[in-house]
Design goal:
This protein is mostly helical. It has helices at about 1-25, 35-50, 50-65, 70-100, 105-115, 120-140, 140-170. Helix 3 (about 50-65) packs across helix 7 (about 140-170) and helix 5 (about 105-115) packs antiparallel against helix 6. The longest helix is centred in the middle third of the chain and has 31 residues, at about 70-100.
């Protein structure tokens, strides 16, 4: 089981890292915080974390005779998601150091510009600016940044693991056995 967890976790992690880097290099390190950027990011996460489903199914069919219960399947999905999430965090930290450079400042400027464009009054913009300055200081600390980055991806992995375990606990779903 550990071999399957590592194999499919690494596959998912490499897809996540590649997706991140392709996006960053395509946009020259500029961060898109709009709905399209979020949609693209979460779509990449779902595509990469499809390795959770494939990993559980492979383990069910090859090592468990075509049968797996919910909790072992869910645990395996979580483990694959954990490995993939670690790759995601490392890829982001490398991106922070090489391509993105100052994500927190770009993000803060984007949030303030968005609030101003929506017609926020001067006092509200001042409060938002103060919150964004505090965010930039926190984000500079890896003890804050790393768990925040992990919290972006791992909940998606939990959801994919739940759905995959619920589907694959039924041995008739995508059965590896051929029917005569």
């Amino acid at each position: 089981m550990l071999r399957d967890i590592l194999k499919f976790g690494v596959i998912a992690g490499l897809v996540l890292a590649a997706g991140m880097w392709i996006t960053l290099l395509a946009f020259h390190g500029a961060m898109s915080h709009g709905a399209m950027g979020m949609l693209l990011g979460y779509l990449t996460m779902l595509v990469a974390l499809s390795a959770v489903f494939v990993g559980i199914k492979s383990h069910r069919d090859m090592a468990r005779g075509g049968v797996i219960r919910f909790w072992p399947a869910f645990g395996m999905g979580l483990a694959i998601s954990l490995v993939a999430s670690l790759f995601y965090v490392v890829a982001w930290e490398i991106a922070q150091a090489t391509v993105v450079h100052d994500f927190a400042a770009q993000y803060a400027s984007s949030v303030i510009a968005h609030a101003t464009a929506k017609g926020a009054d001067t006092a509200e913009v001042a409060r938002l600016t103060a919150r964004m300055e505090a965010f930039k200081a926190q984000y500079a600390n890896p003890l804050y940044r790393v768990p925040m980055t992990f919290a972006e991806i791992f909940p998606v992995g939990v959801l994919v693991s739940l759905v995959s375990a619920a589907i694959l606990r039924n041995p008739r779903v995508l059965s590896a056995r051929t029917r005569a």
